[in-house]
Structures are given as C-alpha cells and as structure tokens.
Amino acid sequence: MLLVMRILIVGGGIIGTTHADEAIRRGHDVIQLERETEARGATVRNFGLVWVSGRAEHELDAALRSHELWEDLAARVPAIGFRAAGSMTLLRTPAEVAVAEEAMARPDAEARGFALLEPERVLAVNPALRGKFLAGLHCGRDGAVESRVALPAIRRHLEASGRYAFHAGTEARAVTSDGAGVHIRDDHGRVFDADLAIVCPGATLGGLARDLAGELPLRRVRLQMMQTAPLGEELTTAIADGDSLRYYPGFAGAALENLRTVQPQAPTAEAHRMQLLCVQRLHGGLTIGDTHEYDEPFDFDVDEAPYEHLTGVVEELLGRRLPPIVKRWAGVYSQCLDPGELVHRGSPADNVWVVAGPGGRGMTLGPALAEQTADQLGL
C-alpha cells in the first residue's frame, strides 16, 4: 500500500518542478515554494534543449531516459512545446569532420542517433541550412522544450491533481527536522510542515542552501545569449557549430585533441569560451548562444563582441542575414565539481535533501534526475 507523503520542494526551477511532477505521479502531496513570482534563473534563460548528442558515456543512459520522460510529459502537458526535432552540428573544417567521424565509429553512435551527412543531405533534413559547411552531424535523439512557458504549464497540470500547491514570492528561510517531520519557515513568518523536504536552489548557493549544507561542491557558470525576431522559415533541427565539439565530453578523443592543436578558436570565441547553439522557438524567433565564464565575481553587464561573433557564424551556416536581435541576456547556472556525478544530491539533515548542480544540463536531465531522486528516497 502506498504511504502518501507530504513533500515540500524549495525552488521553482526545472529541477524543483520535475521533482514535484515525479512526486505527484507517485501519488504524494506536494507544496512548492519559489522566492520569485516566477522562476527567473537558468531554467528560463536557456535554450530549452534536451541535448543527448554530446553527453559523456556515464550520462548517456540518463539523457536518453530523460528524453523518454519529456515525451511522456508532453503527452500529459502539450503546452510545454516539446519537439523531438533532433540537432545538426555543422562542420566547417576537415579537423571538425574528423571528430564527427571518430564519434560515428563508437559503439554508442546508434544510441545517440548519429548520422554524418553530406551538405545535400543536411539540406534535405533542414532546408534552412543553405550556407557554408563540409558536413553535418545529425543527432536524432535531441529535442527542445519551450523553456519560458514549460514551468507554468507543468504547474497548471499539477494543480489539477488537487494534491499540489505552489507558493510564489515565498522565500524559505529556515528548515528544521524532528520526530514529527520537517518544518520550513518562510519570509512571511509562516511554517510549512512536511514529511520530506527537497531543496533545489539552482545557482543560489548562499542563504538557505549554505545554512543547510555549508559550502556545496559546486561552481557557478555565467553565459550570454540572445533572441531574434521570427526567422520567417522553419529551422527543423537545433543547430550547433564545430566549436561545440570542444565543450561536450561525448566527443573526447584523439581527433578532438588534434582539433584543439591544429585549429585554435577565433580570438573572440576563445576569450569567451564560446560555442554556437541555436534553436527556433515556437514563435519563430531563434535563441542563440553561448559563452562560458567561470571566475567570480561575474560582470553585471554583457559584452557585444560575442554577439557579433555568433551572428556571423549563424549567418554563414544559414546562408542569409538574421532577423533583428530583439533580446539579449545573461544567466548563471551551478555545476557539480565531480565530473562523475550528474548532480549533487546530499542529505544535510533527516528527511532533508539538497539537489543542485546539473551544470547546464538541467533541461536535458531534469526529469531523469527527479526519477533517480524518487527511487533513491523510496518514494
């Protein structure tokens, strides 16, 4: 017989929200607290990509399982805008093609949905790609979600269960645990009682997270992105450039080491640790990025040079001018320092867990991480 638990989740981002969905699916009651009126962190400042293609070997099963769970969630909540559209990594030099050829020769290439395509076949898959490149590495397992509308849509679905309550503008200040359960006091002086608390702080590593768990084994990463006006035609896959090969462990190997040696990045790309990722939103605009900055304190402004570089790369691959840029922003996510772990998951007190640090993989791995937590906790 299922023992129904009262589960309190702190944090309204993708990790907290997928944990809420998993708990509700398993028959439990959930209260979720979010300090902002709506999540404003990395969850809504990303591409919305479910990115299987470049995951490390130890991440691959979780990424593939997460893709399945996103498909299930989309069947229950169509408004999240999930598309199993795949991706195309466009290769402009022989050294980049060699990295793709090495990836194609590995035993997991089929699981990743890899196919190395000549330009004519790239164009057949994605007719918007009329620019300059030697080949395209197609990954049929990649997908996309509408990151800025997914969380409200999921919450509306959870509220219909009658077993879920979302408290916006509510900051958890203190958590205590005793024989009667877990008690969380918020910034309005209210106390929420539960059997179990799961704290998902995102990139907010001070405050409650530090009070509970001390210095977490995480670092923060800042990135810059932008969005265009509608493109006016369909981009049938997400796209990436050859620089993206440098940032995904699934491409590690001799060919990548050779690429790093014989083909330095462009100065702007190297200075900002850049890759191109690009996905089309349902409204037709393109979300384009990104950069990587690791040294805090982070700048509070955004630099124009990376945007100019990314614009040039996208236009070369599309073979056309981009529509006007309508939005630019920066975001920060937290990253687990142990490369062998998908996320930091720890219990600083009885029936209190902290889950944080998917490291830019939150949208990709969120549902699978929530499933793993639920299994580990015996929910």
From TrEMBL:
Gene3D superfamilies: D-Amino Acid Oxidase, subunit A, domain 2 (3.30.9.10), FAD/NAD(P)-binding domain (3.50.50.60). Residues 6-375 form the FAD dependent oxidoreductase domain. GO terms for molecular function: oxidoreductase activity. InterPro entries: FAD-dep_OxRdtase, FAD-dependent_OxRdtase_HpnW, FAD/NAD-bd_sf. The keyword Flavoprotein applies. Keywords: Flavoprotein, Oxidoreductase. Its cofactor is FAD. Belongs to the DadA oxidoreductase family. This is FAD dependent oxidoreductase TIGR03364.
